[in-house]
Amino acid sequence: MTAQIFGTLPDGRQVTRVTLQGHGLTASIITLGASLQDLRIDGTEHPLVLGYPTLEPYLTEGVYFGAIVGRYANRIAAGEARIAGRSYQLDRNEQGRTMLHGGADGTGQRNWTIADHGPDHVSLVDHLPDGHMGFPGAMLVRAFYRLMPGPVLRISVLATASDTTLCNFAPHSYFNLDGSDDLSGHLLHIAAQTYLPVDDHLIPVGAPAPVQGSHLDFREPTRLADRLHGPLIDHNLCIGAQNLGSPVPVATLQAANLSMQIETTMPGLQVYAGDHIRPGATGLAGRPYHRFAGIALETQFWPDSPHHPDYPLAELRRGDVYRHITNLRFRPAAGS
């Protein structure tokens, strides 16, 4: 494990980068957003995630790249929520209309503190005060990154709160397993029978709908080249009820020589194919990123759950512990 100063924020605070090695993986995590800044596997020169070699892009075009977003990942319509019988106005940081990823000062944009580290693991903590971004309850959140045999990168999030509040964290890396300019050569397989249809502002409009016959049907391995230029891919796929025990396999992303299986305890997977990405700052591979350069596969509770009582409950009560585990398991691609 190595640690070094990654950069300095406009207010003078330093951002630290920790690099872990073990079991054939090398992962770098920065304190800004508790973000996975780089991920490599032995024998492959290119990175497996989108990221930047310097801090500045993480403050602009690279916001959320690799971050742990919350305290409520994804969107809440009108930034309004009813929690424990009371109504709250939350921060509306997306076009003045919607709360996105916990508000303008959500955890994906905050500078966390390193609590513990070793050669193959690191834990980071953040403290959100009562009323932060409009949410009730002071919250303590801890994120863990650990390299494990497999090889596996395990990302865990634990949280407690002083009062009943909403709690929904998500790792927000963009993956690209072959180092190419876009995802055309990747196959995606997701074990989901249903998804959440959305309106023009990406807010769910009601009950889950069957993926069958839609552009979100990934029940069989599907080449992304056949989907990228069709309807927008930025939806929650319903992968089952929350499993409070061990993570279960829910999705596989595959390139020519490498496969990544996602295992999680969460009931939703937001799939976003990087439609907004445009050339700007130089990325980890030494060139700017283009549209569809990486795909976000965000394990989470379902979006806008405060307005849908039939969705899995993204509520954390005082005295309870929020637990979220996501494993990224790597292996050679079938036939490689």
Automatic annotation (TrEMBL):
SUPFAM superfamilies in the cross-refs: Galactose mutarotase-like
Gene Ontology biological-process annotations: galactose catabolic process via UDP-galactose, Leloir pathway; glucose metabolic process
Heme as UniProt keyword: no
Keywords: Carbohydrate metabolism, Isomerase
GO molecular function: aldose 1-epimerase activity; carbohydrate binding
Cross-referenced InterPro entries: Aldose_1/G6P_1-epimerase, Gal_mutarotase_sf_dom, Galactose_mutarotase-like, GH-type_carb-bd
Pfam families in the record: Aldose_epim
Similarity field: Belongs to the aldose epimerase family.
Protein's UniProt name: Aldose 1-epimerase
Organism for this UniProt entry: Paracoccus laeviglucosivorans
